[in-house]
Oxidoreductase N-terminal domain-containing protein
Amino acid sequence: MRYTPVTDPDPDFVAKVVDSGHPDFKRGDLVWGRRVGWEEYSLVTTPECLLKIHHTDVPLSYYTGILGMPGITAYFGFYEICSPKKGERVHVSAAPGAVGQLVGQIAKLMGCYVAGSAGSKEKVGKP
């Protein structure tokens, strides 16, 4: 069976502003967001999809991972909604995924016992 997506991928991105007519963004600003295609240059007509990066003391790639959608989803979905307590048992399905691996790490940091599962043997790497 072949999968054909309904829309183009909607990736997170990190970019440097090369020109701007918007008062909130100037040349050289670092920004991150979503809804920009896979391309070298993009014309962003909806600046509300951009967030200015103020802290460059972490690798910029973190803004597409732990500080981006996967991290936000893991934090709010697990920490805020589940309200884990030290010593509790946590099962993470899809543990090798972008969100699942962060949920597992957050749970371990909270002092929980963590077990994870994956959809296939290929998704479970050896340490």
User: Anything to note?
Assistant: The mean pLDDT is 88. The two ends are 32 Å apart (CA to CA). DSSP finds two helices and five strands in the chain. The longest helix spans residues 69-82.
